[in-house]
């Protein structure tokens, strides 16, 4: 994948968090992305520490930054990650096939208040 079309290329995570805090403030960020580092005694330093270790949270923060800056959201961000993850051995029997469910309707409504309707 080339980076020329990646609006996050060259943008440090610290800058992303700082921009979001300046634009939204900690309280509104905590409402839009439900993570404790935005709720309980928030700071850029603690947020960076958590976001560097937690990919799903970092993805949400990057998405919010892209939306705030009116960038085109990449198609791979719209893939439901639950559909692509391997089930753990203790939650599903190996011999039983997984039941297919239509997650389109429920996944479209998740975080619709942040991203709007697609």
UniProtKB/TrEMBL annotation:
<feature type="region of interest" description="Disordered">
    <location>
        <begin position="79"/>
        <end position="118"/>
    </location>
</feature>
<dbReference type="GO" id="GO:0003677">
    <property type="term" value="F:DNA binding"/>
</dbReference>
<dbReference type="InterPro" id="IPR036361">
    <property type="entry name" value="SAP_dom_sf"/>
</dbReference>
<dbReference type="Pfam" id="PF09905">
    <property type="entry name" value="VF530"/>
</dbReference>
<dbReference type="InterPro" id="IPR018668">
    <property type="entry name" value="DNA-binding_VF530-like"/>
</dbReference>
<protein>
    <submittedName>
        <fullName>DUF2132 domain-containing protein</fullName>
    </submittedName>
</protein>
């Amino acid at each position: 994948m080339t980076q020329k079309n990646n609006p996050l290329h060259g943008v440090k995570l610290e800058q992303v968090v700082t921009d979001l805090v300046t634009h939204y403030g900690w309280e509104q960020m905590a409402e839009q992305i439900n993570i404790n580092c935005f709720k309980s005694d928030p700071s850029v330093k603690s947020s960076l520490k958590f976001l560097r270790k937690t990919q799903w949270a970092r993805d949400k923060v990057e998405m919010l930054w892209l939306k705030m800056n009116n960038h085109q959201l990449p198609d791979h961000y719209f893939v439901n990650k639950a559909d692509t993850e391997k089930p753990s051995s203790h939650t599903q029997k190996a011999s039983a096939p997984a039941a297919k469910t239509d997650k389109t309707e429920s996944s479209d409504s998740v975080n619709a208040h942040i991203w709007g309707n697609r």
